[in-house]
Queue: 2 jobs
Job 1
Amino acid sequence: MTHIPTKLLAPICKTVRRDIVEMTHAAGSGHPGGSLSAVELMVALYFDTLRHNPEDPKWDDRDRFILSKGHACPVLYSVLARTGYFSPDELVTLRKLGSRLQGHPDMLSLPGLDSSSGSLGQGLSVANGLAIAGRLNKKDYRVYCLLGDGELQEGQVWEAIMSAAHYKLDNVCAMVDYNNLQIDGCCEDVMGIAPLADKWRAFNWHVIEIDGHDLSQVSAAYAEAATTTGKPSVIIARTVKGKGVSFMENVAGWHGTAPNKVQLAAALAELQ
Amino acid sequence: MLMKPTRDGYGEALLILGKENPDVLVLDADLAKSTRADWFWKEYPERFFDMGISEQDMLATAAGMALGGKIPFASTYGVFVAGRAWDQIRTTICYANLNVKMGGAHGGISVGPDGGTHQSLEEIALMRVLPNMTLILPCDAIETRKATLAAAETNGPVYLRFAREATPVVTTEDAPFEVGKAITMRQGSDLTIIAAGPVLYEALLATEALSQKGISARVVNMHTIKPLDEATIIAAAEQTGAFVTVEEHQVYCGLGGAVAECLGKHFPAPVEMVGIMDTFGESGTPEELAVKYGLTSKEIIAAAEKVLRRKRK
């Protein structure tokens, strides 16, 4: 498969970042920080790696994506809109009454969502189930699952990490958005998760460590995961919470706070 | 009377489904021998998944399998399905209305010597509150087999509760079974006893004793708690005007509560509830526990006499 050059993906990342600050501003709430940190992971996935067809969201042979950290749905809604699942005009309905863009993903309301999510720690298990079903159905689709780093404090994640390795689900690719911040502060202060790569390796996963904002590293990591056989792969992506908006970067407070009008203007000015 | 554990009905149905439907998968959490899921495991090992002692992972994995077009049956003890994995059932399975079937084994105090930690007495409360859920408590092994087969044909989440001990087989092979359609086991005009699960047998025993006292009790097998067969309850209210509910479950938020909600809305009538009286169980034999915790025909007879005194003349 030929990759889309990163110079074409980079402007899309800026568009998606603008979407994230605009939609959370319009909603007056939501989660910009952990959405902004995952932009490169999501843009490289949806615009380059993922086998999907926005005209046929239920296509049987499509690759699947599970957003385990459901609160980061602004970044997912943006890439779905920008790849053509629905009009980008709809993004500003986020979190409003009657909107298909629920505060956390609701697959029954919005085409293109492969699962509903919101309660942390459950998505990797769902991805494993989809991967097992795909194998039994003799489908060659892959299943991608984005997890937050704080989310790894949920015990069920480690159950799922065991299961994927036990059943040798090499059609599963997990991505950890390792921005090292959660609501109450730095992950290492709240409940330490390091050493992350060693832990996944000890659980028999193929571990790929990258700079999660370097598009060429992200695309290469997806390709490496796709050619790894006999075990599942995890991409541990070092990221910056709030990436791209200077006053949001590395500030835990922007986990779940929407920008006001002045902040929106300042953010958009930086994202030109 | 033929005695057989309801869990055997689950195991038999899984074997039938394994043969008839290649999309049926079975998962268990290290208790396959107890739940009877191991019968399927031996015949169809490529479609059986032991998830180890990790119920939350098991339920969410089943959700993923359902998203992939499969019909997963995930079973373990009821305390661990309905209790430990409740959030997975709520947020990952029911919120998206996924086609996951849950088998809650060893329901009720009749589990016996394992004691209070393992005696599941809360499934009705925990499962009935969830939108999209179908909840079935079959009364014997035959009905459990039928209910399990019906669950595979029902789209969306279905919870089946079955038990460990051999209990009387009170239905017949040719008796009809339809999800959401209660079965009137005995006609009667003075009051209606509504029961679910193997404890239905005690209601049938009570009916015979009441009959000798000149009391005509109707017996309704409310195998499906959700969706509740309100029409059958309302008709019984109109025709008999008094109720006793019987369940091997907490009386709070259980079958009795469901019946009382229905009556309150449509046709108020007195209800006496027989069940576990807001307490945990303990170790003992199933028979000893049934006596100590008041789940025998004796309590049902007393409740019937009491409700008749409350009945409007």
Job 2
Amino acid sequence: MTARNDPPSGGIRSAAASLSALPPDMERMEALQGFQRRSWVLERIAWLGMLGLLLVGLAGGFGGAGWLAGAEATTPDGALRITYSRVQRQQSPTMFRVEALRPDQQGRLELRLGRDLLDGWEVQSLLPQAAESRGDAQGLVLTYRLQGGGAAPVLLLMAQAVAPGIVQASIGTAEGAPVVLRILVWP
Amino acid sequence: MDSVLRGLAIYVILLLLFRVSGRRTLRELTPFDLVLLLIISEATQQALLGNDFSIANAVLVIITLLLCDIGLSLLKQRSQRASMLLEGVPTLLVAHGRPLPGRLEHARLDEQDVLSAARELRGLERMEQIRFAVLETDGQITIVPEREPLAPPIRAGTQAATPPPR
């Protein structure tokens, strides 16, 4: 560090000589150069830190697209597969994609959104619209009549996280055990 | 409470980011720098206000930012250490006509920047005419000439001052 502050060869003696003959005000300023050098080192470290944050952002560490953010979970009974973002941002819309893997013979599905999801997220839309809905102690049960045509029918839940932190969201069917998603929400 | 916390967080984050990005960052204010500043302010505004565009929220955020600024200025006034941490210290770049290359490099400057400041501020043409060049904490380069300062340079579109009639 100190060596880099010196001028290149040829100018060393003259620059050193010029620094040795300073008026008192400049001498006082020179006395603080140790602090300035440490500041420059810290600056460079901070730049690397900013670059690191940028790379984490590109990888999805702050939500949005990126392999760190994307996640998939299946309910214990295998009835639903949920694709969601495990890293989200407060007040930023996000989508939970729910695939109904095992609707009953009539294409009927009872989807339960847990209370933790309803408390932690502001639901903006749910497509397609449920045929029926009812609330109970564990959350909201939405009844669908699905027509998959061979493929697993898909439900799209748009919501935005209300508060930052590591927040849980439970999604499942009315009868089966839900899958509990643990989601990091950045402020 | 949310607005105050947002204001505090944004103030601290901006302070840190601008502190570590170096004192010369956005100092020149070229047209591109101006656009960059506007983009930064726009991005900041969204984070500050969220979805609440009410006057009450705006007033709360503004008060938070102003109080942060007043608080920091009082802190800097009372503590030299805090002042150094928050603003840095002036740095000698040229001594008796000799540039100090390591310092110039660390400050992301070169001799041309110093000469440019010397021309603009003091009408000096050569490095040897500069006694001291100092990078101030606000990012400005000040020049102390070796000899008596020359008359300020005549800018295009202005007339040179004529001596009073005897």
